[in-house]
Amino acid sequence: MNKSSIGPICHAIAATAALLLFAAPVSLARPAHKHADAVPVRSRPIMEMSGAYSKVSNRYYAVVTSEKEWERIWARHSGQAESVLAVGGTRFNVDFDRYAVVAVFQGIQPYNLGVVAQSVDETPDRTVFRFTNRWVTTTEDSPAHTGAPYTPFGLFVISRASKEVVLEEAVYGEKTKSATYTVRASFNILGSKPRPAP
After folding, report:
1. Are residues 183 and 96 part of one domain?
2. Whose CA is closest to 89, among 159, 134, 155?
3. CA 186 – CA 183 distance, rounded (Å)
């Protein structure tokens, strides 16, 4: 083999090796889930209302996405069709194109003065709304007793997006232990339909 034929062969081998070197990672790479490592963005509700007395006496959870649904739930909660709540507070005016209302009704709970938002965690796939309860303690004043049991509630305005919304309640054991979270409900906002008022 003469020297003139060695040069092109060497160039061909080098070119083939370079193609294999750069192509190998592409062909061996596994497609990753688009949002697998997404870090949640934590925020607070835009508006919130909480109290010890609701006319809704059973556990009920909803993510409200329309004015009609909001009117129906508010009427059941307040006991009247008007926007004035007898025990204090007025109905939020909500732009449902941009926002949704998380409604949490805890039913009859003798020592619970209301529902408190802990956090709103956003990822591209879902929103996780975490809440806890404001329990009566020996060092805390309770509302004037009316003879009726407490029916705690919380109403929270959050940003609306076409994704799953998960409601998680903080459950505490002994005082030295941190909270564990129990999923109470989940809703697909993209395909959501109004639920019957409680």
Report:
1. yes
2. 155
3. 8
First to last CA, the chain: 91
Higher local confidence (pLDDT), 15 or 150: 150
5-9, 54-58, 104-108, 181-185: least confidently modelled range: 5-9
Strand order in the sheet with 59-64: 47-51, 153-159, 99-106, 59-64
* Domain around 70: 41-188
CA–CA distance from 66 to each of 94, 192, 197 (Å)?
9, 10, 13
Spatial distance between the Cα atoms of 70 and 155, rounded to a whole number of angstroms: 11
Residues 61 and 152 in one domain: yes
- DSSP states of 94-160 as a string? --TTTEEEEEEEE---TTEEEEEEEEEEE-SSEEEEEEEEEE--TTSPPPPP-SSPP--EEEEEEE-
pLDDT at 9: 44
Enumerate residues 6+ apart whose C-beta is below 8 A from 146.
Answer: 53
Query: Within a domain: residue 19?
Result: yes
Q: Answer whether residue 35 is part of any domain.
A: no
For residues 38 and 34, give the distance between their C-alpha atoms in angstroms, rounded to a whole number: 9
Contact yes or no for 55/76 (Cβ under 8 A)? yes
Assess whether 106 and 66 both reside in one domain.
yes
Structural domains in the chain (count):
2
Q: Are 189 and 63 in contact (CB under 8 A)?
A: yes
The answer to pTM > 0.70 is yes
